[in-house]
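Worked example

This section walks through a single chain of length 95. The input is the sequence exactly as stored; nothing has been trimmed or padded.
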Amino acid sequence: MNQNPGKKTDGSLKDLWIGIGITLGIYLLGLLIIFVYPSIFFAYMCVAIIGLVVFPVISFSKGKSRLGQGALIGLGLNILLFTACFGILISGLGG
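Given that input, the structure is written out below as tokens.
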């Protein structure tokens, strides 16, 4: 049984991990920036949201579906990490 009829390649698993890595890199870079310059929190949030939404759109439009899927997975992880950290800070457990 052929799992890939029509010989269409969607990309490699490496592209999936690259997409996840890029989006998590944006998150970690943002954390470093916020720790150094806490006053630019809202500016970073605007830029990060635009970047994290535009990256999968561009990936899918260029035909790199695995990279786009990785970017969407990374976007989901970014949302989960951000809300978890926000919840810790709001509840007062962050110090």
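What to look for: The radius of gyration is 17 Å.
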